[in-house]
Amino acid sequence: MGNKKASILVVDDNDDDLQVLGEVIEKEGYQPVLASGGEQALELISMKKPDLILLDATMPEMNGYVVCRRLKKDPETRDIPVIFLTSEWEDEDIVKCFESGGADYLKKPFDSIELLAKLKTHIEWKKSRNEVKHLDELLQKKNQELSEANKIIKVKTQQLNQVMGLLEQDTRTDPLTGLCNRRHALKLIDDEVVRYQRNQKPFSLVISAIEDLDVIHDTYGHDCGHAVLQMVTQIFISTVREMDSVARWGEGEFLIILPETGFAGAKMLEKRIRKKLEEQAFFYNKEIIPITMTFGAATFIGGESKEDVIKRADNALNKKSKR
Asked: What is residue 250's DSSP assignment?
């Protein structure tokens, strides 16, 4: 909004003053709009809001103070700067000017240079304030957009984390039994080796195998073999402690990791699992499917590797399988 485009509403009940003010304003390049009273001024403002108002303070019927107070109560017009005009400027008049919402005042008879200086100052001030307001609105809009974007990012991040969690779970879980897979079991054994090196507490491994699983597959079908694996899984899970880990080690093999457990504790667990297997018959298509399992246990010895303790447990399993 530059001088050439700024509109100024002049309100004065004195026709001579109104005419002179209009000419001065127009000569300076502004667009004057003239009103001879308060009611007419409010009607013109309702149709088109000016950039600034020159308002006579002492008019009959509706004086300038009343007009200004009405403008300042309306959110649509409260930001229009008002410069009061009057020939009577006592201290109380100046106070009334500012209390009613005026931005400035000018004494009649006015000096053209002072008038134009004040017009320029207040129009530029309004322009700057409008620009700040516009920028603030843009900032609020961008903040809102950013807030909405952050909400979307948060939701997408949560969804991505869920997917990543599922993918991570898939990489360490056997899909048929839901147990740890061999890869994750090896990591858990690494953790136990590190723990042993730190506190010297033993840990043991138990490897077990379902004998003749291939025969079950061939005789009753793979669905039956899968059901056997799942039943054995439930027996293992219901028998071990919360601190223990059970993994599917091979096609028909399981591995149990027993933290802070010596060889005797591993053999006791093996005995409890055998007892549950003997007590629980497995039916498939109304037939009892005989399930026999062999076990091999080993306790970690300081100085050996995880491969060593796994091999000793596996050798113990193989010896029993050959009997």
From this structure: S
101-133 pLDDT, tens per residue? Answer: 999 999 888 889 999 999 998 988 888 888 888
**Angle value at C-alpha 12, between 128 and 29, nearest 5 degrees:** 45
Give the position of tokens 């100024």: 8
> 249 is in which domain, residue-wise?
182-321
- Identify the weakest region by mean pLDDT among 46-50, 61-65, 106-110: 106-110
Cα–Cα distance measured from residue 262 to residue 53, given in angstroms and rounded to the nearest whole number = 96
The pLDDT value recorded for residue 322 is 54
* 113 and 210 inside one domain: no
Residue 189 near residue 197 (C-beta atoms within 8 A):
no
Q: How far is CA 296 from CA 3, 48, 279, in A?
A: 97, 95, 21
Of 105, 134, 163, the domain-final residue: 134
pTM of the model: 0.54
245-248 and 104-107: which strand pairing? unpaired
Can you tell me the distance from the alpha carbon of 238 to that of 31, in angstroms, rounded to the nearest whole number?
A: 91
- How many folded domains does the chain comprise? 2
37 belongs to a structural domain: yes
For 69-125, the three-class secondary structure string (H helix, E strand, C coil) is: HHHHHCCCCCCCCEEEEECCCCHHHHHHHHHCCCCEEEECCCCHHHHHHHHHHHHHH
